[in-house]
């Protein structure tokens, strides 16, 4: 009888230890996910702050239609609001829009040579690189965490302690494809109209935003 009680107590202690180890493991893995996401969020907000300056600079040289800049502005807002998936989608669309703007700048020597534009382009590219770097770490932590709560014996206790599956921060399939630039967006007259000309040095100086 005494042996049975000791065995039962030992089983209870072992189960309690397993639960404690699993719980602490879930917490640590979730904290890694949250820390990695916080680093992504910092870069998304940095990009958010840089975009208005870029738009202001580009408007001083290139005759973008209102719809193009409105779209970039909407995407800018989306990268700091919503779920992980919504932010990821907005960030991916914004990356493509910014690449198009930088590609179009090749047709505007004065814009391309602008120190303000070059600095903004460099800062945005560095920010994009940081997002890509941290995204890899974040997704690795998410995979590790999701595996822990979805495989046995973790899945037995994860739901009990309300550990929910986390979303990946996905890059778009077309991320590595060449950027397609629609130069019609630069033409206020629409497709078929006259291609806008780069402003003269005098006009560029008058239009360049003050710093």
How many domains comprise the coordinates?
A: 1
Average pLDDT works out at 80
Structural class assignment: mainly alpha
Low-confidence stretches: 175-211
Helix coverage percent: 55-70%
Characterize the largest beta sheet: strand count, sense, and whether it forms a barrel.
none
Beta-strand proportion = under 5%
DSSP E strands, number: 0
CATH architecture: Up-down Bundle
Task: Give the end-to-end Cα distance, rounded to a whole number of Å.
Answer: 86 Å
What general form does the structure show? rod-shaped
The value of Rg in angstroms is: 26 Å
One letter per element, helices H and strands E, the order comes to: HHHHHHH
- CATH homology group: LemA-like domain
Named CATH topology: de novo design (two linked rop proteins)
Layout of helices and strands:
Layout (H helix, E strand, L loop, with lengths): L1 H58 L6 H13 L5 H21 L4 H5 L1 H36 L3 H5 L42 H7 L4
At a glance:
The chain is mainly α and 211 residues long.
What brief labels describe this structure?
rod-shaped; about 210 residues; de novo design (two linked rop proteins); mainly alpha
Describe the structure.
The longest helix is centred in the N-terminal third of the chain and has 58 residues, at 2-59. This protein has helices spanning 2-59, 66-78, 84-104, 109-113, 115-150, 154-158, 201-207. The radius of gyration is 26 Å and the shape is rod-shaped. It has a single domain (2-168), classed as LemA-like domain (de novo design (two linked rop proteins), Up-down Bundle). Helices cover 69% and strands 0% of the residues. With 211 residues, the protein is mainly α. The protein starts with a helix and ends with a helix.
